[in-house]
Amino acid sequence: MKKQQGGFTLIELIMVIVILGILAAFALPRFANLGADAxxxxxxxxxGAMKSASAIAHSAFLAAGTNPTTVNLEGVAVAxxxxxxxxxxxxxxxxxxxxxxxxxxxxxxxxxxGTSTTVQAxxxxxxxxxxxxxTEATSAGTPPVITAPTVTRTTTDCN
Length: 159
Fold this sequence. Notes:
There is one protein chain. By secondary structure, this protein is α+β, with helices and mostly antiparallel strands. It has helices spanning 10-32, 34-64, 89-93; strands at residues 70-73, 76-81, 84-85, 98-99, 108-113, 116-121, 131-135, 138-140, 145-147, 150-154. The strands form three sheets. A five-stranded mixed β-sheet has the order 4-5-6-7-10, covered by helices on one side. It starts with 9 loop residues before the first helix and ends in a 5-residue tail after the last strand.
């Protein structure tokens, strides 16, 4: 009588390896570029932080009642313009860390020019396509009509 042996044949093992290779070829690209999703989510977080910090600083400004030029948020003096954080003040109010260039950047590339602050995700191929821009509140007319600051997010290309 011939005994039957258990186990897999060489052909069966090769077929399993081929199938796993095909599955890996389709699955790997799906998970390989998580950096773009992370940068997009980070920029969305910065947008939310700026909006919240602006509202909290405005509330502190209104509570002070004496038209202060700065408000104190958690021990940090935040410069105010028209009752809202200034372009430089929003960085302190939202606790955003970063530098002016990619080489000096902490978490973000932060640039303030005039009445606006731009926060860009470090590592994005096109920085201007993965950013948040905060523009100071404006005042016009007599009596002055205050227009709240704007926070504009661009996340079209965070690769």
